[in-house]
Design brief:
single chain; 295 residues; mainly beta; nine-stranded antiparallel β-sheet; seven-stranded antiparallel β-sheet; 3% helix; globular
Length: 295
């Protein structure tokens, strides 16, 4: 029987990866890989924070609250949102080799997903109205995906960012899938970060599964709570299971070594057949969260 010996290595409970001013800081070095990163920053009312992007491109993505983003001679006013289950949000893209100042008049929490890159694109504002909001799956596999920064939705060099919102009792990241091999037209090689929030207070919980292939074993089964993070260096990941009574949110950050920025996945062949059952089921009528998506 499996003992899930890798869980402690790849499951980062809330607070265990706090550094300095960040309540979460995952860098390529701390994760033991080469490309993906994520910081989460809380600002008190009127507080400002300045950071340098170095060799990475970043998004400034409000989790809760509004923020002003200043980079070079550009200023972006992000309206943000009241919380991750309320709506998609506007955001800002800031390039490598930049100094960025974020200021929040009323305070809030902000995600800073990043990816190493060798190319500097212009700083830009991402409108909330332009974020494709997708309802994926059906029945107990119904979930909502906010596609902020993916190929075809927003230009970046290597960074891919989306949010997944799953009603209580449902499964997402299912069927389990992987993206750890560069196979043109079939699969991308991407490292991935899952950052979790849940509705329902401090006792709310969910589960995240990650498991490897025969050649690259990996075994993670994590009970996750708000503020927890799970790292996906390789292997099959899913399901993400929302316990009944507690809605589940997670922010996905992905990047890899490929020259072509793409999100191509391969289902676990043992479970891929589940997709064929969705055509005969309805999408969960609790979706969309916040009510601002198109079906």
């Amino acid at each position: 029987m499996s003992t899930h010996i890798d869980t402690a290595k790849y499951h980062l409970p809330k607070g265990t990866s706090a550094t300095g001013e960040y309540e979460l800081e995952v860098t390529p070095e701390s994760a033991g890989w080469g490309h993906s990163g994520l910081k989460v920053l809380t600002l008190s009312p009127g507080e400002a924070h300045t950071f340098r992007t170095g060799d990475a491109e970043f998004l400034v993505l409000p989790l809760e609250g509004a923020v002003t983003v200043g980079v070079a001679d550009e200023t972006f006013e992000l309206a943000g949102r009241s919380g991750v289950f309320a709506a998609a949000t506007d955001f800002a893209y800031v390039p490598r080799a930049s100094e960025v100042t974020v200021t929040s008049a009323a305070g809030g929490r902000f995600a800073l997903p990043s990816a190493r890159t060798e190319r500097a694109l212009p700083a830009r504002y991402g409108r909330k109205e332009d974020v494709p909001v997708e309802l994926r799956g059906a029945g107990a596999c119904s979930r909502q995906v906010n596609n902020y920064c993916l190929p075809g939705t927003f230009e970046a060099d290597q960074l891919l960012v989306c949010e997944v919102l799953t009603p209580g009792g449902n499964w997402s990241s299912y069927p389990p899938h992987k993206h750890d091999e560069a196979r043109p037209g079939q699969e991308s090689q991407l490292e991935e970060i899952y950052y979790f929030q849940l509705s329902g207070g401090a006792d709310a919980f969910a589960y995240q599964r990650v498991y490897g292939t025969e050649d690259r074993p990996l075994d993670v089964l994590a009970e996750v709570r708000s503020g927890d993070t799970v790292l996906i260096p390789h292997g099959w990941h899913g399901p993400s299971i929302a316990a009944p009574g507690y809605d589940l949110y997670y922010l996905n950050v992905m990047a890899g070594p490929g020259q072509d920025r793409a999100w191509l996945i391969c289902d676990d062949p043992a479970h891929g057949w589940v997709r064929t059952t969705w055509a005969s089921q309805d999408v969960d009528d609790r979706l969309p969260f916040g009510g601002d998506t198109e079906r």
